Amino acid sequence: MTASEPSTSHDFALLAQRIEAEVAELTMDAFGPEDALRLGLILARRGTEGALPIAIDIRRDSQILFHLALRGAQPDNDIWIERKARTVLRYGIPSLLVGTRPKIDGRRIENEGWFDQMSYAAHGGAFPLVVRGAGVVAVATVSGLAQLDDHDLVVAALREFVEG
Hints:
- This protein has one domain (30-163): Haem-degrading domain (Beta-Lactamase).
- 48% of the residues lie in helices and 17% in strands.
- It has helices at residues 9-25, 33-49, 75-91, 95-104, 147-163, and strands at residues 55-60, 63-69, 126-131, 135-143.
């Protein structure tokens, strides 16, 4: 699966546009605990079928609605999940987008004095679950792959969820 990492300002700008379009595309009419289970099972199936060493998490604020570690996932994946999910809940956009936007201007958000890397992670894999008229109601996170692969896995599962 391994997506290639962008390397130029133009590449980062294109990636940011793509992520923004994904958020718009995957906005839903509703999302509740039963939906979290269904989305979590889609992610679990995709991870199992691909023998992916990932941890999966869906949460609403501090309430964990779904959490699973597949074969090969490490305890550190849970730490990354916490930080990536917290990033989405704080900024309201995918964690990959938080890290990508500064790179358009040749910067890294991690170098900004106000960005607390112990609490937040601007790496791909956490995606806001947005409901029309309500905003971000939850976050789906995957950890264990390269950051673009984590992000793309969540997006693919959300597409399947929304279409299904």
